[in-house]
Amino acid sequence: MSGTDLVHQGHGEPRPPHHPNYFLLGFVGALGVLAAWLLGEALAAVSTVLVYILVALFLAVGLNPLIETLRRQLRMPRWASILTVCLLLIALVTAFVWMMMPPLADQVTTFVTNLPSTIDALQETRFFQNVDERFDVLERAEEAVVDPQVGQQVFGGLVGVGQVVFNSLFAIFSVLVLTLFFMASLPGIMDMTYRLVPRSRRAGVRRIGDEIVQRIGDFIAGQLLVAAIGGVVAFLYLWAAGSAYALTLAVIVAVTALIPLIGTTLGSLVATLAMFTHGPVIGVVTLVFFLVYQQIESYVISPRVMRQAVDVHPSANITAALVGGALMGLVGALLAIPTVAALTIVLKKVVFPRLERR
């Protein structure tokens, strides 16, 4: 047998060209699209629960430095440190409610008591009489009161408000329970997360992870410091202005200041509206005072505190808060700044060194 025959025998007959199975490709592609759609629907259905988990995990990580400080300084077991922090938070919430409820109840009672006389005085004014002659305000108001559809709408609105209140209380309770769970199991969760990294890189990842946790705790501490400064300044001014509810309004200013970007503005508006009840002059003065203080806080106090806490440029903080608020509302604005701080740590410790070695 010649060499040419062996070559032909080894290669055999030429194979026909391979044609892809378009039906199989389309079927697999359709299954992939269906799986992606089902996954998106599932994530949308549990998005609220995922937000609860994310907020609780953020709070647990943020409170962890305080727990570790109590554990090291006072030599307390971790469960005792967690219990101390929880009792402290409960005490702060109780004090806030205790300061808020009496003046709020007094003002509501005063408003309801004076409502008939206020309406009578309004009807006697020349302005209201002219408006009533042109638009029949009183007649339309009486028709609206006796209209059954209006009653149904009011009842539906009350039911909606009750549902919102119930959902809010349920959300707060869920977040608190999840936060307590995450605080107790945070070391185990972090150790399990680090074990997913190869052993050769585990030490470096642990250092970066611990630094990120510390930065989140520093962010919460910095935000609390900014809020405390705002509350103290508001109390001193309102007390000097003679407000009977200086402490309550100051607490409102401090609590709302925990909200990035718009928090101080909301609290200042509440305090300003309350001071307008004492007269237009003191109301305008209060408005000017809080406008000036808001500029000082935005450009002096908050940038310095947050720069030391999260080591992120103020422009990046503002941009992150705006983007987070647009994506996830208030929760996104709260989580955006520590997220940017974590990304900054990864860039400085991992990405930039690798790029420099190339």
UniProtKB/TrEMBL annotation:
<dbReference type="InterPro" id="IPR002549">
    <property type="entry name" value="AI-2E-like"/>
</dbReference>
<feature type="transmembrane region" description="Helical">
    <location>
        <begin position="21"/>
        <end position="39"/>
    </location>
</feature>
<keyword id="KW-0812">Transmembrane</keyword>
<feature type="transmembrane region" description="Helical">
    <location>
        <begin position="164"/>
        <end position="186"/>
    </location>
</feature>
<feature type="transmembrane region" description="Helical">
    <location>
        <begin position="45"/>
        <end position="67"/>
    </location>
</feature>
<feature type="transmembrane region" description="Helical">
    <location>
        <begin position="244"/>
        <end position="262"/>
    </location>
</feature>
<dbReference type="Pfam" id="PF01594">
    <property type="entry name" value="AI-2E_transport"/>
</dbReference>
<keyword id="KW-1133">Transmembrane helix</keyword>
<protein>
    <submittedName>
        <fullName>AI-2E family transporter</fullName>
    </submittedName>
</protein>
<feature type="transmembrane region" description="Helical">
    <location>
        <begin position="79"/>
        <end position="101"/>
    </location>
</feature>
<keyword id="KW-0813">Transport</keyword>
<keyword id="KW-0472">Membrane</keyword>
<keyword id="KW-1003">Cell membrane</keyword>
<feature type="transmembrane region" description="Helical">
    <location>
        <begin position="316"/>
        <end position="347"/>
    </location>
</feature>
<comment type="similarity">
    <text>Belongs to the autoinducer-2 exporter (AI-2E) (TC 2.A.86) family.</text>
</comment>
<feature type="transmembrane region" description="Helical">
    <location>
        <begin position="216"/>
        <end position="238"/>
    </location>
</feature>
<feature type="transmembrane region" description="Helical">
    <location>
        <begin position="269"/>
        <end position="296"/>
    </location>
</feature>
